[in-house]
Design a protein that fits this description.
alpha+beta, 3 helices
Length: about 200
Amino acid sequence: APLPNGTHFVVTDRQGIVLAANLENPMAIGQTLSDPMLLAAVKAGVTWRGEGDDTTGTQRIYAFQPSGKSAEAPFFVAVSVDKHEVLAPARRRLVLVYLALTLVAGFGSWIAWILGGRVILKPVADILAATRQLHAGRLDVRIPLTPKDNPSEFTQISTDFNRMAESMQVGQIALEAELARSKSTQEKLQHAQKLA
């Protein structure tokens, strides 16, 4: 299988002399390892995995393995890959996940705003407008209710407001009728006094 971009593959002997390397690897065959991380692993002669900077300052992920079970193995195999190349796909996926979450949160907020306007703001605005009109003396004001209105607290407040306004209007009509009768009676009494 082909190695990922930026992968360095090298085979060395116990002294750290490069015996084989892939084409992307800047290490020359027959020369001593220039990478201090790999050279330290060869000197230790044990399996090792880790991260560090190579001679160019690039962060790399390393894997080092002797060809045998002991430090006296004749060959050592080392593979390193650019850390940014390894993490790039995960970072791209993470950006896409964040973008998707942002879109979902934005869509959810928009839906909440729309529903909040219909479920909370409009009923409150209707109640406040009717209250202001009632305060201004319009006893015929009513909050419009439809059969599809759910039995929420706002529907109950609106229903009670309408009953109160109806009661006040009926009382006002009765008071005006009584005043008219009293005025008529007073006029009759005044007319009778003038005749007497």
